[in-house]
Structures are given as C-alpha cells and as structure tokens.
Design a protein that fits this description.
By secondary structure, the protein is of the alpha/beta class. It has 3 domains: 56 residues, 434 Repressor (Amino-terminal Domain), CATH 1.10.260; 128 residues, Response regulator (Rossmann fold), CATH 3.40.50.2300; 134 residues, Response regulator (Rossmann fold). 40% of the residues lie in helices and 15% in strands. Strands 2-1-3-4-5-11 form a 6-stranded parallel beta sheet, with helices on both faces. The longest helix is centred in the N-terminal third of the chain and has 17 residues.
C-alpha cells in the first residue's frame, strides 16, 4: 500500500494535501475524507474492535502523515477505563477548598452524563509519584490538572506520557490545552474601578508566586494601575502570604503607610485582613476600602459587604471536562478557553 503523506493529491478535492491545513482533523472528518464510517476510524485509532489490517493502516497513516495526529496513535491502546482523573495538589489549604470543590462538581456532573467516573489524585508539591502510578496502571483515560505552576512538573510529565490532559488554569506552553478564567483582565478592571472610586495608594495582597493564577492577578493589578497613570509601588505589594499572622503584620504596615485601598487575591486572605482592620478600629470603607479577587461564602455575611470578582468555578470544571472528553475522542479542541467574570460592587469600596 502506498504511504499517504503531505504533498499527495487528495482524490476527493483534487488539491495537494497539507499537514498544516488538516491538523487535528476530527474522526468524523477523517471518515468523510477516506469514505469510511466514523466507527471504523475510531476502531482504527483506538485499536479496539474488528477492522481489517489494511484499512487500519490506511486510516492511521492518513491521520498521522496528513492530519497531524501524533505517532502515539500507531500504538495499540488498552481498553478504555471510562475514568477521568482530577489531579489536586496535596498541599491545598482551606483557602483553596471551596474552589476545588466547585470544580469537582462541574467535572463530575459532565462526566456522569457521558458515562464516566471521576477519580481524585492527590499530587505532592513537585512530586509526580502518585500521578505516575495512575498513568502507568492506566487507571484513567484523561486527566484534569486543577492547578498550574511556574515550571510545572505535572504538565511536563503528562506531555511525556502522551496521555490526554487539560489544565484548569493557564500555563506558558502553547501545546497544552488550557481552561481558565480571565484573572488578569478581571484584576485590571477591579483596580481601574478602585481608582475611579478615589483610591490612589492601592495595596495588593496575594498568595504563592509559584502559582500561575497569582502571577496573572498581579499582572492585572499592574496593568490597572498603569492604565490610570499610577506607578507600581513595590512597597504596596505583599505576595507569598500563607497564614493569618503574616496577613495581620501586613495590615500594620498598611496602616502606617496610610494606604487607602486593599485588593486581596482571595476570599480567605480578605477575611484575615478585615478581621485585623476591625481589631485596629479601622473603618471600612471610611478609612480604607477593601476588595477581593474571589467571591465566595467566606465573605457572604461580612459587614460591610465586600466588593469582589465573581467566577463560576462549577462552569470552569464543566468546560474542562467537556474539552477533555472531546480530546479523548479525537475531536478538535481550542488550545485556550477563557471564561468570563463579574465584578460585584458592594459597600466596602463606597
């Protein structure tokens, strides 16, 4: 059988084939081009079900050499598990729990609708051991990374393992399928809003700089200040705030520096800051205005009510699961999907 490759003439269209033109063609599109059924294409790519050797060879050569599928599709695949693995960092804190819970709800709802189960993998800080066991034992058909890091070892491992995976969160890798909220633009909008409400000395209090979301929010903070012709003052930036004691010390600095606005990267940080401000008899919003980059029940009953950015973490999980299932089925997916946000204006910034 003649090997099909880029540069051959497509008998259907009469045009020269191009790998770039047909990259990531779906199973249905391959079936149409080759004049076979989608089921036949699926069997050829997965190695499951009865199909002639010559037909299998033809489909796989077309998929790899013409459509841009990786060579891994030449390998015989094991039976599908109908499991999706959600990878959560084992060093999560109470700060993170509500977000991970909502993402998990979104993932499991979509998984169940598609006859998939969800398994949870707890991954240690830069330790891929538990994830490696799941992959090597073929316990899941695809993986969702619930957090992304600078120099992400989990992304690197899954790429090398050549298994379908998506990230919840952004990553500096154009080959990785990413689903995220637009944290940078949201923080940019929030800072601009705070400036419009009279704040000029705005502090940013945030989490771990190894987390990609921290960097995105910080970049948005900087952009928002620059949009309003305000320079970024390093003395007003407090990152890697991991506990309540450190947060309370920062409030002492904020009071001393007479900062008029505080933007906290998440709801738990914001609660720590508000508690300390109240203890120091600092009126919100009278003496200092406060806003949060994440809206949740943690701040729901606080008085005054807190201006926050609302993201839908359940939707984030749902979209991540849908994209992963498409990826598992060999369908075309977007490299990056950014979901929206809403700024909820409340009493704390009046």
């Amino acid at each position: 059988m003649k090997k099909i490759q880029a540069g051959d003439i497509d008998q259907t269209t009469g045009k020269e084939r191009s790998i770039m033109d047909n990259k990531k063609m779906s199973y249905a599109e391959i079936a149409q081009k080759l004049g076979v059924s989608r089921t036949t294409v699926s069997r050829a790519m997965s190695g499951k079900g009865r199909i002639g050797k010559e037909t299998k060879k033809m489909i796989r050569e077309y998929a790899v050499n013409v459509c841009g599928y990786p060579d891994l599709f030449f390998e015989e695949k094991k039976d599908m598990t109908n499991n999706i693995a959600l990878v959560i960092p084992s060093n999560w804190r109470l700060i993170d729990l509500p977000f991970f819970q909502r993402c998990m709800i979104g993932i499991t709802e979509i998984a169940m609708l598609n006859n998939y189960d969800t398994i949870i993998v707890m991954a240690g800080d830069r330790d891929v051991g538990s994830l490696e066991r799941i992959v090597n034992n073929h316990k899941a058909d695809g993986y969702v990374l619930a957090r992304t890091y600078v120099d992400d070892v989990f992304v690197k491992y899954l790429k090398e393992a050549k298994v379908p995976f998506v990230t919840i969160g952004s990553i500096d890798d154009p080959e990785v399928i990413q689903i995220d909220n637009d944290h940078e633009e949201a923080c940019r909008d929030m800072v601009s809003t705070m400036v419009l409400r009279g704040m000029r000395k705005i502090a940013m209090i945030g989490n771990n700089r190894s987390h990609m979301v921290t960097n995105a929010r910080f970049n948005g903070y900087c952009s928002g200040l620059e949009d309003n012709h305000i320079g970024v003052n390093p003395d007003y930036v407090f990152l890697d705030v991991h506990n309540k004691l450190k947060a309370e010390k920062i409030v002492d600095e904020i009071i001393m520096k007479k900062i008029d606005g505080i933007l906290c990267m998440d709801d738990t940080l914001c609660r720590w800051i508000l508690t300390k401000l109240r203890r120091e008899h600092m009126r919100v919003p009278g003496q200092v205005k406060v806003a949060s980059c994440y809206d949740s029940e943690v701040l729901e009953d606080y008085t005054p009510s807190i201006t926050s950015i609302r993201f839908d973490a359940i939707e984030l999980g749902s979209v991540a699961c849908k994209v992963l299932l498409d990826l598992i089925q060999g369908n075309r997916v977007d490299i990056r999907t950014l979901l929206g946000y809403e700024i909820i204006f409340r009493d704390s910034t009046k």
